[in-house]
Amino acid sequence: MLNPAQCHVRPPKGPHTPDHTFEFGQPPVKLPPSPDSVASDARSVSPSNHNLPVNLQRKTWASPQKLSINKLRLKEPRGIPQSRIANGSRWASTLRKVGAVYNYTRIPSNQVRLLLLKPGNFEDDLCISLITVDDAQVGSEQYPYCALSYHWGEGTPDNIVFVQEDPASRTLRTVEDVVDANRPKKLTVKPNLAEALRHLRDESIIVSLWVDAICINQFDEEEKNEQVMKMALIYSKAYNVNIWLGSDDTETDSPVSYLAMSFIPKVIDPNIHAKLLGDEVYVKSWASLFELLRWSWFSRRWVIQELALARNATVHCGKHVCLWTEFQTAIAIFDRYFDTLKPKLIKYFATAHPDRWTRDDESMFRIKHLGAKLLVDMSATLFRSKKNGDRESTKGLETLVCSLSGFDTSDPRDTINALRNISRELNRPDSEAAKLVPAPDYGKDLFEVYRDFVEWVVTSSKTMDILCRFWALKERKTPLPTTPRLVVLPSWIQFVEDSAWGKGEDVFNGRQAGDSFVGLPDDHNYYASGQGGTYRTSVVQFSKKRTATPQGHHSGSASPMAVKHDMSILVRGVMMGKVSFRTDPFPDGIITKECLVRLGWSFDKNATTIPEVPDQLWQTLVADRGPDGKPTPSWYKSACQSILAHQSNNGHINIDKILHRSSMLGQPNIMQAYLQRVKGVTWNRSFVQAKSFQKQDQVEDQLQEQLVGFSPPKTEVGDMIVILFGCSVPVVLRPTYNAAEDMTEYHFIGEAYIYGKMDGEALDEGYGEQDFRLV
C-alpha cells in the first residue's frame, strides 16, 4: 500500500537536476539517453539492453507489491468499548471502498496531462498517476515523456487502470475525505491500450507517457477542442513516439509479429537481397511482413500526424521493437520488389490459408494502396527542413484529407481534425491563412463540420472539385457520448466508402470503383471549366439556416431540441444534355459489346483483320488521358486495336482475363499498360449516352448531338449532364421537384467523363448559364 505522504508528485528541485524524481514512493523517472545510443539491432529487447530508453525495454517481470486493502489486516480488537469498535468498523468500511471511479478535474487551456506509469509485473494491475504540465514545459528537461501512437481498437472499455491522485490538490475536511484522496480510482480503457501499457511498463522505474484516451477527458468537449489543437505540440515535443501495432504472441507458435519483425534487419541489408528474393525459405517471412502491413494501426487516421510530427519513433509489436526508420526502409524495399514476390505470395497464401486466400484472386495482393505504404511515402515527403532547422509541411489540408482518405477514425468529425495540425496552412499558426482553417469543435454535428470544410476549400481554392472527391467518412450508426446528434448528409458530400479502394481494411478486398477523374487538388487532369483567361470560377452560396423544435414531452424540465439544417447549396453552371441511355455498371473489368458498338466499333468474330479503331473508342476507354492524368501515349491506339482482337465470343472485353494471360507469359507489353488504364477508368462505372440540348434555348424537344462517356453507377436515364463553374469535369445531377418550395432541386450523382467536353469546349458552344440548388 502506498504511503499517503509519498503520493505527492514533486518536480525536480532545480532545472539542472540530472535525474527527474517524481516521488510516488517508487523509483524515479530517468531521462532517456539520446537517440544515437539506441541500438539499431533492438528487435526483441532483453534485460541486457541497458543502453535503451526505458520505454523501449521489455524486461523479465518481477512481482512488485500489489495494491490491496487486505494488507491492512483490520480486525476488531478485544477489550475495547463497543462505541470505539463501531467507529473502527466504520473506518474499516470506509477503507474498503477502494475502486471509486476517477473523475477528471478541468485543467487550464495552457496545460496538458502526462501519464506516469508505475512499475509492475506484466500481469499486475495497471497503476498510474496523472500530472499537469504547462505548455511551455512540455518535453523540457524536467518533463520528458514518450507519446503513444496506437489504434483504439474494438472491444468494450472494461480494462481497469488505477489512478493515484495527489492528495495535496484536494480540500480534506473529514476522515472519509482523507481516505478518498489517497485511495486509487478506476479508469476503464479498451483492451488494446491496456495491452500496450503492460508491454511498455518497466519493473523498476516509472515510465512517463502521453496517451490521448487517458490524458484528455474524452467527455469534456471544451477540453477536447483545446487539446486536439495542441497535438502538434504534444507529438513534436515528445522524446519518442512509441508506435504500438498490437500483439499476437499467444495466438500461435510462429506469430506474425515474430516472423515479420525479426525479418526486418535482413530486408534492409542490400547485400542479401538476391538471397531473400530467390530462396524459397524466405517466402513465409515475406508473407508475414505482408500480413503485418494489414494490421489495424496502419488504417487509423490519427497515426498520420502522430508519425509525421515525431522527432524519433519506434515500432512496438508484442515484445519486439525496431526503429521506425528501419521499418520505413523495409517497407520501401518490399514495395520495390513486390511484383517479383507477388506470384510466390499468392502461391504461399493459397496453400497455407486456403480459407482466406485463393490462387486465382489477385485483388488482395497489392501494396501500393495499403495504409502502411501510404504512411511510408507520406512520412518521407510531407515535411521539408528550413535553414534554421525548423520543419514545414509541403501539403495543404485539402490534399491531405483527399489523398489520405482511406484512413479511418471512430469519430467521423476527425476526418479533418486528425490532419489539420500537419497541413501547410498551419506552418504559421498565427497567419491569416491559418486562422481561416476550420478549428476543431466537438459541439458541432457532422454536417456542420463537413459543410465548414467544403466552404473553406471552395473559398480558398476557387474550385468546386471537392464535390467530386471521395473524402468524407459516413455518419456513425450510433452516437458517441460527445456526438450532438446524428445526421443524414446531403448528396454533394461524397463518401470514402465509394472510392476506388474504399476505407480502412476495404483495400484488402481489391479495387471496387474506378479512379477519380478530378484527381487530387494539384493534379489538374481536366479543364471542363476552362483554363487561364477562359476559366469560369466557382459561384456558390452555402446556407447556414437551422431550425430547432422541441422534441417530445419532458415534464419538469426543458424539452431537448431537434435541430434541422438547410443542407442545400446554390451553384452555377451550364446544362449540356440529358442521359438517354446507360449500361449497367461494368463488373470486375468487363467492357460489354454494347458499349464498344455505341462507341463506333463493328464486331465481327469471323474477321481475319482488325479494322482501324475510331478515336472516340480508344480515347473514351481511357478517358483521353494516360496514367496519373498525363496526356495519352502515342501507342494507345495501336494497343487498343490489338486488344480488340481478344474479344470474347460474345463481343466483350474481359480485362482481367487478358491481363492474366499476358502476365503468365511474363512479357509486359503495351496491351497490359493500356488495359490497366482502361480498368482504372471503367471499373464499376456505367457507359452513358446523352442528347445534347439546343444551345441557348435548352429546350428538351430540340436535342442535337449525342454525348458519350462514363458516369457513376447510380446514373439513371433522365439525369442531367452539367458543368458546374469551378469544376474541372462534368457532373451528373438528378432533378427532383420540391412541392413545399415549388422549385426544382438537384441530387449530386457524381463526376463524369464526356468525350470532347473535358477541356472547356462546352463554354464556347453557347449553353445558357443557370443556378442549381444541390440537396
From TrEMBL:
Residues 43-52 have a biased composition (Polar residues). Pfam families: HET (PF06985), Het-6_barrel (PF26639). Residues 145-306 form the Heterokaryon incompatibility domain. Transmembrane segments: none annotated. It comes from the Eukaryota. Residues 1-52 are annotated as: Disordered. This is Heterokaryon incompatibility protein-domain-containing protein.
